[in-house]
Amino acid sequence: MRLFVKARSFLRNLFRHRDVEADLDQELHSHLELLIAENIRAGMPPHEARRAARIELGGVEQVKEQVRDSRAGAFFDSLFQDLRFALRQLRRSPGFALTAILILALGIAANVIVFGVVQALVLRTLDVPHADQVMTLQPKHGGPFLSYPEVRDVRDANTAFSAVAAFEIQDFGLEANGVTRPVWGTEVSGQYFEAVGIKPFLGRLLGRADDDHPGASEAAVISWSAWKSDFGADPNIVGTTIRIDKHPYTIVGVTQEGFYGTEKIAQTDIFIPMANEASIDGFDWLTSRSYRNLFSIVRIKDGVTMPQVEAELNTITAAIARQYPKDEEGLALKLARPGLVGDFIGGPARGFLAGVMVLAGIVLLAACANLGSLFAARTADRAREIAIRLAIGSSRWRILRQVLTEAFVISIFGGACACMLAWTALTGLAGWHPPTRYPLKFYFALPQPSLILIAFLISTFAGILFGVMPLRQIFKTDPNESIKSGGSLSSAGRRWALRDVLLAAQIALCCVTVTAAFVSLRGLGKALTMDLGFNPKNALLTQFDLNQAGYKGGAAADHFQRQLLERVSQIPGVEVAGYANSTPLSGDAAVSAVFSQESSDFRSSNRAFEAYTYDASPGYLAAAGTPLLAGRDLSFADTPNTPRVAIVNQEFARQLFHSEQAVGRYFKNGDGVSIQIVGIIGDGKFFTLSEDPEPAAFFPISQQDNTSTALVVRTRRDTADMVAAIREVIRNLDSSVPIRELSPWNTQLGLSFFPIQVATVALGVFGAFGLLLSIAGTFGLASYTVSKRLRELSIRVALGAQAKQILSAALGRMLILLASGSAIGLLLGMAASRVLSAVVYQATAQDPFVLAAVALTLLLTGSLSVAGPVRRALYLDPATLLREQ
Amino acid sequence: MGSEQTSLLQGTLDLLILKSLIAGEMHGLGISRRIQQISGGTFDVKPGSLFPALHRMEEEGWISAFWGDSENNRRAKYYRLTKPGRKQLEAETKRWGRISLAIAQALEAS
């Protein structure tokens, strides 16, 4: 009952605030009237009676405040009041409010976005049961790939894993419902789904029996998302027959929702047994120890520790190396977190993300410093108001609470804006498809409540921390002094204040982000203009694999390719055309060992070096725009029956002969076959843009057939016409060839420029954030300083000071702060950009261009942000001002 | 809270207000005067103490308020004792009796 009464009055106080207030007002009025009446009855004259009554009642407002304090929910009531007041205050100074909210939003959004990406790519484990036990095996040295016998040996010899599996991500020509289209799939060995540990959504998954021997099973499993989008979520999908590269397969199951293979950035749609690889890939690599093309996935048994696993791995690999010294010498395996090709991409990606995270932290710090000086200036501005409130009896606690509420309101708005920004950016990223034919895709579970929570926590923390910092001033305020001195708490700018230090720190931090942005921008510029060793301009690249159309290598494929080349060369407008098995920078690069002509021991430790190798047709080099420096082009006259020949690049010749005069000389491949060098080409880029010059060799495709075809057509004609013409030619030759890519070569190089573009965009955004922050901070403090010292400056002008003196008086210190902040920032930035060199081509901040650009940008933004205040200081009219104040 | 002579002990004001309302419904000034009268002029309750107490006690449910006409036809807010208020008065009176007895004993002891 009592609780009910209390609750009722609480609610009434809260929601019928106006009525309650009106009632209180009336009651006090009637009380006054009664007092007056009483006094008149006691014989006082009316005005005397009124006066005495007023004295007895005391301050009406004070009584009201006391009554309010005693009410139920008084705390909430005044909180609402504070909130309303805070909102009103912010509306009244929209400049301050918007700046503060913008600063917070930028700083926090930067962090949330970066954290979102890090969480998705690095922190989040695979979405499988007991993900902490799922790891990947990879060689300690060299590339990330393993050969099938290596994985098999580990699988058969270990005691530490409950399952060991190999997998290869492949593109297939998938024929379903009469249409053939290229899809990405995974060839998996028998224990793959045991290692992953997921449940099927429909039907069953692939098991050991499916992978027992070639042709053991023609079962295929499709992913949940492929089932949903490509197969129309058909509940009776199990049992359906499809054709993969012309071979019939039966769909036996659908994976559980959210499973898309074990690589986080690659979604594959279909899983088939690895035992069938020869029929799919066109040649058998299951028994080859030197053909390394597989990733692995293992599940560690319960209770087995990492050191135990590593010890066992060392024993197993040592045994393999002893048994097969030719191919496996020096084999050493390590465990890595799965998802980003182990440590291969994971390592650099983690490093880069850590760097970006630091930058994001710097932006946040700068934002906080900015916010701090903004709040400090605002508190100083409000000195007079605070003094008046103190003077009419407001408690300091109440004022403090008011200021806190304001800071809180700003942080909430800032946090909300940040969430919106971050959400938009992350959604965009998740839906974004990098410019590549590979199934790269980012997976962000959106919206991530944890991220929103983090955003609000940072926001509230930053807001309140910096809102409260200037409160020292409030508590020192002597209302009397403050009102007399015209409302400035501290005479602005006599001693170095906290906000000056904050400004310098903030400018230094922003300078770091700006430097990083320029370094990566410069790197991108260099990358775009650097010599690739070929010319992707005015060239069309067509890619397909004849294997997917049922060609089994040998004569049939060779016949098709030559016919294609002949017909394409006859298309009007084609300058020159040629084909190869693959092109440089296409993402799949074959590497083989090179031995000197004198070698007789072909163990890998005895090799001279490894070179990128390509199989090319005559005319390919011309079509690719790779100039032949010496010797002759490849020729169809080079056949399996003629001596083996190759064209090598300068780096190859330098490494093997320490000279570029290599035409006519010989080297040997891993099989001990002598190969004569018939031509020399210039150096180029083969795998990444940031690589050092690497040796490479081009072999005549007529000496070793390859179904994988990359046709390069150099043309001056309109791209769309040419694309249609080439497509027509291929269709006429064989309509069942699934064309993977047919577009300008430049477009397909996207993936190579991808890391540096990502870096540039990311760093550019942070640079822009940094600049915005430093402009806001500098402008804020400069205009604040000028407005605080207007009176003093007017007196100086009135006494005849010159423009220069006025400027140095008003903003001299600002300039010192700007200059020192920038200098420190530039030094820090130079140190920090070393980190960038992993991702960005020739990243260095010692570049005079970068230094000049950073200095110029800072100078420009600095002058831009103080221009307004400078104008105000220079053109002030002392007469008006001194009269006003 | 307070007067020239004696500060009111915590909780005593409530007791005095409840006690004064025993005589019947009264407005704020009436209550104030009544307390002055029954305490023989010892306690002079200022509006700054009286009104917060009245509003708090109303929220507790001990007294209820209504608007009425005063003796000389002015609108005034009147308070009257409720049933829980009477109970509270009894309880408070007993408690006060015990306290004053105890204090008196304590002071008499030597």
Global structural class of chain A: alpha+beta
Rg on CA atoms of chain A, Å:
37 Å
Side-by-side strand order of the widest sheet of chain B: 1-3-2
Give the % helix of chain B.
Answer: 55-70%
Largest sheet of chain A: 6 strands, mixed, barrel
- Termini separation of chain A (Å)? 61 Å
Query: For the CA atoms, what is the radius of gyration of chain B?
Result: 15 Å
DSSP helix fraction of chain A:
40-55%
Q: What's the average pLDDT of chain B?
A: 83
Largest interface: A-B, 28 and 23 residues
| Total of domains of chain A | 5
Q: In oligomeric terms, what are we looking at?
A: heterodimer
* Total helical elements of chain A: 29
The beta-strand count of chain B equals 3
Fraction in beta strands of chain A: 15-25%
Q: Quick summary of this structure?
A:
The complex is a heterodimer of chains A (885) and B (110). With 885 residues, chain A is of the alpha+beta class.
Secondary structure layout:
The complex is a heterodimer of chains A (885) and B (110).
Chain A: H1 2-15, H2 17-41, H3 46-57, H4 60-70, H5 74-92, H6 94-123, E1 134-139, H7 148-157, E2 161-176, E3 179-188, H8 192-196, E4 200-203, E5 219-222, H9 224-229, E6 241-244, E7 247-255, E8 270-273, H10 277-281, E9 295-300, H11 306-323, H12 325-328, E10 333-336, H13 343-381, H14 383-391, H15 396-431, H16 449-468, H17 471-476, H18 479-484, H19 498-529, E11 539-545, H20 554-570, E12 574-580, E13 590-596, E14 609-616, H21 620-624, E15 628-631, E16 645-649, H22 650-657, E17 666-669, E18 674-681, E19 696-700, E20 708-715, H23 719-733, E21 739-744, H24 745-748, H25 750-788, H26 790-798, H27 803-832, H28 848-874, H29 878-884
Parallel strand pairs in A: 3-8, 5-7, 14-19, 16-18
Antiparallel strand pairs in A: 1-9, 1-10, 2-3, 2-6, 2-9, 4-7, 5-8, 6-7, 11-20, 11-21, 12-20, 13-14, 13-17, 15-18, 16-19, 17-18
Chain B: H1 12-21, E1 26-27, H2 28-38, H3 47-60, E2 63-69, E3 75-81, H4 83-108
Antiparallel strand pairs in B: 1-3, 2-3
Helix pairs in contact in B: 1-2
